[in-house]
Amino acid sequence: MRPLLIMLLFTTACRPDTHNTGNPILSAVDSFTKKDLRAYGAILFVPSQGCSGCISGIEDFLLNDYVLNGKKGLLFIVTGHTSKKTARNRLGELALNNPDVFFDYTHQFDKPPFMQEYPKVIFLRNGEVESIADINPGTSGDLYKKLVTKEKL
User: Fold this and answer.
1) Confidence category of residue 15, pLDDT binned at 50, 70, 90
2) Per the domain annotation, does 6 fall within a domain?
3) Disulfide engineering: 120 pairs with which of 34, 45, 57, 108, CB 3.0-4.6 Å?
4) Is 11 among the domain residues?
C-alpha cells in the first residue's frame, strides 16, 4: 500500500501544471471542462436567452462553421438549458456529442462575469486571456472573422 501511495504522489507531483488558476474566469472554465486551455484559441459562452439574433448567430456559427466542418481549437460552453433534451432540440445531436462543446445544466455560467445579455467570447493566447468581447449586433461580423483564424482543421 505504501509504495503505491508514494508512486501516486510522485507521479502527480511531477506532472506539468496544465490548469490555469490565475484568472477566476479561466479557473472556473478549467474546473468545469477539465481541458487544457492552451489547446484553444477562444472560449465562447452560448446562452439560451438574451439577444435572440445574437444567440441565433453564435448557434449558427457553432453548428454550421465549427461542428459540421470538423473544426477544432474553440471551446464552447452552452448555458441556460434545463436538460439535455432541450439542448438537443435546439442544437442537435452533433453539437451535444462534440468534445469541444460543454453544456452547463447547473447555470454556473449564465450570470456575470461570464454572461450578461449577449454571448461572450474570450480570446486566448497560450491559455491566457488575450481579450474579452460581447458578441452583439455591432461586433459580431468582426468577431466571427477573428474566430475563424483561431480554428484548426
Assistant:
1) very low
2) no
3) 45
4) no
Residues whose CB falls within 8 Å of the CB of residue 1, separated by 6 or more in sequence, listed in order: none
SS3 state at 94: helix
Residue 58 belongs to domain with CATH number:
3.40.30
Whether residue 2 has pLDDT greater than 50? no
* pLDDT tens for each residue of 52-71: 999 999 999 999 999 999 99
Nearest to 57 by CA among 150, 138, 149: 138
Q: Beta strands of 72-134 (E only): which ranges?
A: 74-79, 101-104, 120-125, 128-134
Number of domains the chain contains: 1
Q: Look up cell 459540421; give the residue.
A: 68
In three-state secondary structure terms, 121 is strand
pTM for the full model?
A: 0.83
Q: Please give the average per-residue pLDDT across 90-98, as a whole number.
A: 93
* pLDDT of amino acid 21: 53
Cα 83 to Cα 56: distance, rounded to the nearest angstrom:
19
Q: What angle do CA 19, 121, 131 make, to 5 degrees?
A: 75
